[in-house]
Write a structure and sequence with these properties.
Blueprint lengths: L2 E12 L5 E8 L5 E4 L6 H17 L2 E7 L5 H19 L1 H16 L1
Parallel strand pairs: 1-4
Antiparallel strand pairs: 1-2, 2-3
Length: 110
């Protein structure tokens, strides 16, 4: 199955005093989907996984993400861990994606 590499970036938003207001992991190739890293809401990650899986099935391509970030801080480490986990889940599910794509193609032919 073809692999498409997509970028993920960290958005750091600072207030007028230069203090960190919010930090998000941003996926420009997934309709601008983002996960807020500065808050602890795991439902965003679950929604992201669902969107990624839907895109893989629709585009019939395995997605692999890479982090594009110039800073080296705790948020970079957290984002890198999330990217590693997403890529691992995708690789582990590759066979299942192939089967789902076959089913999807069969249903759309009939």
């Amino acid at each position: 199955m073809e692999i498409e590499r997509l970028v993920a970036r960290i958005k750091r938003i600072k207030n007028k005093d230069g203090e960190m207001e919010s930090v998000s992991l941003f996926f420009p190739d997934l309709e601008g989907k983002s996960i807020t890293l500065s808050e602890s809401d795991s439902t965003e990650i679950e929604k992201l996984f669902n969107q990624i899986f839907d895109q893989i099935i629709q585009q019939k391509k395995i997605i692999e993400f890479y982090l594009e970030d110039d800073e080296s801080d705790l948020f970079s480490e957290v984002a890198d861990d999330i990217i590693l986990q997403i890529n691992s889940e995708i690789r582990q599910s590759e066979f299942d994606f192939e089967r789902l794509i076959e089913i999807y193609n069969t249903e759309n032919i009939n």
